[in-house]
Amino acid sequence: MRTPSSPLVRGYLEGIIDYPYIRFVRIPAVGRKVHLFTVQNIRHGEQLGSVWWSRAWRQYVFEPFGRTVYNAGCLADIQDFLTRAMADHKAKRGKGR
Q1: Residue 21: which of 5, 43, 1, 37 has the closest Cα?
Q2: CA–CA distance from 48 to each of 15, 33, 66, 70, 82 (Å)?
Q3: Cα separation of 74 and 77, whole Å?
Q4: For residue 49, what are the β-bridge partners?
Q5: How many CB atoms neighbour CB 85 within 10 A?
Q6: Is there a contact between 74 and 22 (Cβ–Cβ < 8 Å)?
Q7: How far is CA 86 from the centre of its chain?
Q8: What CA–CA distance (Å, rounded) separates 21 from 72?
Q9: How far apart are alpha carbons 91 and 80 in whole angstroms?
Q10: Mean pLDDT value across residues 8-35
Q11: Which residues contact residue 33 at a Cβ distance below 8 angstroms, ignoring those fewer than 6 apart?
Q12: What is the reported pLDDT for 11?
């Protein structure tokens, strides 16, 4: 997991998380207990996919849109985001018990 940087941590709280080439934008969770995120290309703003909670897998998952391709760096950023989202989910779940 990457070392937290203040823009990334602040962004997570505000709902926009930027990596070098990918942006995760939290969608308001109306009637949901977990967050939903769109994944965008920072340069062009194109939608690349979504991150959502899979009840079957009991974790956040990334679902790419269409025929998008990713290099190792982008996949590492997606993996880092999923790891952070799960850590946040577990921390909030622990507080509610």
Answers
A1: 43
A2: 17, 24, 8, 10, 15
A3: 5
A4: 39, 64
A5: 22
A6: yes
A7: 9
A8: 12
A9: 17
A10: 79
A11: none
A12: 57
0.70 exceeded by pTM: yes
Report, as an integer, the average pLDDT of 16-43: 89
Which residues, listed in sequence order, are joined to residue 72 by a DSSP beta bridge?
Answer: none
Q: Answer yes or no: are the C-beta atoms of 39 and 16 closer than 8 Å.
A: no
Which amino acid type is present at position 86?
Answer: M
Residue 56 Rama label (left phi>0; alpha psi -120 to 50; beta): alpha
pLDDT digits (tens, 9 = 90+) for 43-80: 999 999 999 999 999 999 999 999 999 999 999 999 99
